[in-house]
Amino acid sequence: MKKLLFFLFTLVVLASGCGKKNTFTLEGSIKGLPSDTILVFYQEPDYKLDTILLSKGKFTYTITPDTFTIFSLLLGEKQILPIYADKGESVTLNGMAGKIEVKGKGENAQLAKHIQYLNTLENYKNYETRRRQIHRVARECV
Fold this sequence. Notes:
- The chain is of the alpha+beta class.
- The protein contains two helices and eight strands.
- The strands form two sheets. Strands 4-1-7-8 form a four-stranded mixed β-sheet. A four-stranded antiparallel β-sheet has the order 3-2-5-6.
- The longest helix has 35 residues.
């Protein structure tokens, strides 16, 4: 009987450890921020503020969301980055202020695609501006 109880207890402990993690982790390295503190503004389901302290531009932020949670990172005066947190998921941010690469799953993967597309548009706009400047200078030289 004792062996049976020990076996059942061990089985329950092992089974509970195999489940999905209940935490969400945001980690990364962002250079060029105006401060060593990132403000975190939660929008769904609760409205609250938190902070992430950077150490040499690197950080790790772990929460235990009860449900799907949306929060935004306030990275400076003009840059806000939404993050979608769910149990067992993680997101990685890398880059410089204004040019941040997002790696994650689900909604965060979609966010990464949108950011990449916007960066492509910005690069094209910069290319077109430079091209026009070169043509204008070339015409002036002729």
